[in-house]
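Folding follows sequence. Below is one example:
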Amino acid sequence: MKPFQINLINGIVLIAMSLWGYFSSETPSNTALIPAAFGLIFLLVTPAFRKENKVVAHIVVVLTLLLIIALVMPLRAAMGRGDTMAMLRVGAMIVTSLVAMVIYIKSFIDARKAREAGN
């Protein structure tokens, strides 16, 4: 899978899970929309990412890492409440973001190897 493809998938999952959590809550919090905002950003930069814009790629990697770290607290809170659906939603966002990170890092390594092989 190419980095821009997982970026697109990750963005869609973040938006869908975040909106689902927000609208299914009896007492929705605006912080539940933070992953949706990240997802929207990821969707908006996908065309530049597809063209292998290095600056955009690095920004996406940093934002993805920050998002993974930020999602730990909602996961812990959902576990503490015993809220299975919230755990599944947050877990899905974490998993897709982790898969994206692995693919991003692998693409950076592959690009470096290709560059070194060309020199």
User: Anything to note?
Assistant: Residues 3-118 form one domain. The mean pLDDT is 94. The chain has one domain: 3-118. DSSP finds four helices and no strands in the chain.
